[in-house]
Design a protein that fits this description.
Largest sheet: 9 strands, mixed
Number of helices: 9
Strand content: 15-25%
CATH topology: Spore Coat Polysaccharide Biosynthesis Protein SpsA, Chain A
Structural class: alpha/beta
Order of helices and strands: EHEHEHEEHEEHHEHHEH
CATH architecture: Alpha-Beta Complex
Distance between the termini: 25 Å
Radius of gyration: 17 Å
Number of domains: 1
């Protein structure tokens, strides 16, 4: 039976964590685990999440960074602590649909995929639906090659699940990459690992000013430099032994 690790990076998440954590742990079993890295929250996030997970019978790992590391390094740390077969990434302010884990486990078993990405309903900060599809709303293409992905990443971390095989190749993250989810996609592509896209919306993806990623507009030069760093990391990457 496939065991699950859920990896989350938190930062000042008191307002949003209860519904997200509940939506996750109700789908997990004794064989599963939750790994949370808190990035120096200034509110009561660590105590809150500890309480929320106190009745979960699986493995719980909660660590707090000694200094603020940002989402990429916090997720890298969480992924490095994960021990299970299939690793699901989670943001702190969304809400999983009650079939998400089961759909991903079934897809993993039937497709033998190393990277899976699904769609999501898009909600505003008031909980109202903006769009039934994140891929439609954000103009994502999920049937991407490397070049297309470097132009516009269509793989959102909160909607991703990765195999242990992929994780072992992808870690540690190269310094200078700007998105951990894009890096996981590029590693899968470089190593010819199987990627599966799932058209179903398996969670509510909340977009508001408090999101850590995806809300800040960057200059064209910043975007170009970021893409060049990702390309450089991809070109330097060595394929894993067969």
């Amino acid at each position: 039976m496939t065991s699950i690790s859920v990896c989350m990076a938190t930062y000042n998440g008191v307002k949003t964590l209860p519904k997200q954590v509940k939506s996750i742990i109700t789908q997990l079993s004794l064989e599963d685990e939750v790994v949370i890295i808190d990035d120096c929250s200034t509110d009561d996030t660590v105590n809150l999440v500890s309480g929320l997970l106190s009745n979960f019978k699986g493995q719980v790992i909660i660590e707090r960074n000694e200094q603020n590391m940002g989402p990429i390094r916090s997720f890298e740390k969480a992924l490095g602590l994960a021990t299970k077969d299939l690793i699901l990434l989670s943001d702190q302010d969304d809400e999983w649909h009650d079939n998400k884990v089961q759909v991903l486990k079934e897809c993993y078993a039937s497709e033998n995929s190393d990277l899976m990405v699904h769609d999501a309903a898009v909600l505003d900060k008031n909980g109202d639906i903006i769009d039934q599809s994140w891929n439609h709303y954000n103009h994502n293409r999920v049937d991407q090659n490397v070049f297309g992905n470097l132009i516009k990443n269509g793989y959102t971390g909160a909607m991703m699940a990765v195999s242990r095989r992929l994780l072992e190749v992808a870690l540690p993250f190269p310094r200078g990459i700007e998105m951990h989810d894009q890096w996981l996609f590029l590693v899968a592509k470089k190593n010819h690992f199987k990627i599966t896209t799932i058209s179903d919306s398996l969670m509510n993806y909340v977009r508001h000013g408090g999101n850590v990623t995806g809300m800040t507009k960057r200059s064209k030069s910043e975007m170009l430099n970021g893409r060049l760093r990702m390309l450089g990391a991809y070109l330097k990457m060595k394929e894993a032994p067969k």
